[in-house]
């Protein structure tokens, strides 16, 4: 799907309110990507699976007002930077929502990924709204209906904002699968921690 200006495209996915728009142009998107890559305190998180310590296949950062825990991992809480606050303000205006934290993922190449999951941790509330902003290389975001197992592919472009509204976390799983691409991508997922 070609994204023009700031036009919002409703993706017409059953059982969820999901839309996509270009929030930043190509040039600004790559400038922001370079800034975030070089200026944030990125972490290599680990998860224990069947007694083995496994490195997550991406780097992460959490900025906000409260601690955030997912999959048994409590992310290192870092304060908002002026640059992130500026981005947050623009996302909030576009989404017509307020957020108090942003979880960032740096996919260093096509081998970095995230498996099927929902952002449904208790501290996010019953049916959370997530605003997902992408910078860098285009990656395919996969969305799977928990009941029908139907899968929808959404290409997330440099500067694009995917708004996952009501029903998106309760009715769907999502993932970023591995790819042969060598390009880098940084994703900012704005959310509200209760």
Sheet bearing the most strands, described?
A: 8 strands, mixed
CATH superfamily: Alpha-ketoglutarate-dependent dioxygenase AlkB-like
CATH class: Mainly Beta
Mean of residue pLDDT?
91
Number of helices: 2
- The residue ranges in which pLDDT falls below 50 over 5 or more consecutive positions are none
In helices, the fraction of residues equals 10-25%
> What is the element string, with H for helices and E for strands?
EEHEEEEEEHEEEEEEEE
What's the topology here?
Blueprint: E1 9-10, E2 18-22, H1 26-39, E3 46-49, E4 52-55, E5 59-64, E6 69-70, E7 73-74, E8 77-78, H2 82-95, E9 101-107, E10 114-117, E11 130-136, E12 139-145, E13 151-156, E14 160-164, E15 172-176, E16 185-191
Parallel strand pairs: 5-8
Antiparallel strand pairs: 1-2, 2-14, 3-4, 5-9, 6-7, 9-16, 10-15, 11-14, 11-16, 12-13, 12-15
Detailed description of the structure:
- The protein is mainly beta.
- It contains 2 helices and 16 strands.
- The termini are far apart.
- It has helices spanning 26-39, 82-95; strands at 9-10, 18-22, 46-49, 52-55, 59-64, 69-70, 73-74, 77-78, 101-107, 114-117, 130-136, 139-145, 151-156, 160-164, 172-176, 185-191.
- It has one domain (11-191): Jelly Rolls (Sandwich), CATH 2.60.120.590.
- The chain is globular.
């Amino acid at each position: 799907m070609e994204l023009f200006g700031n036009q919002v495209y409703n993706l017409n996915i059953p059982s969820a309110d999901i839309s996509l728009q270009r929030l930043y142009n190509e040039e600004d998107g790559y400038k922001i990507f370079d800034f975030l890559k070089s200026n944030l305190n990125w972490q290599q998180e680990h998860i224990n699976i069947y007694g083995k310590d496994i490195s997550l296949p991406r780097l992460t950062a959490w900025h906000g007002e409260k601690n955030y825990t997912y999959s048994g991992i409590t992310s290192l809480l870092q304060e908002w930077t002026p640059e992130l606050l500026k981005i947050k303000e623009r996302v909030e205006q576009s989404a017509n929502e307020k957020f108090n934290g942003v979880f960032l993922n740096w996919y260093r190449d096509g081998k970095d990924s995230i498996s099927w999951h929902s952002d449904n941790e208790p501290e996010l509330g019953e049916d959370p709204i997530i605003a997902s902003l992408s910078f860098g290389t285009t990656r395919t975001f996969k969305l799977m209906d928990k009941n029908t197992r139907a899968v929808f592919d959404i290409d997330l472009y440099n500067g694009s904002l995917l708004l996952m509204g009501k029903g998106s976390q309760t009715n769907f799983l999502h993932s970023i699968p591995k790819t042969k691409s060598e390009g880098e991508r940084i994703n900012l997922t704005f959310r509200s921690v209760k």
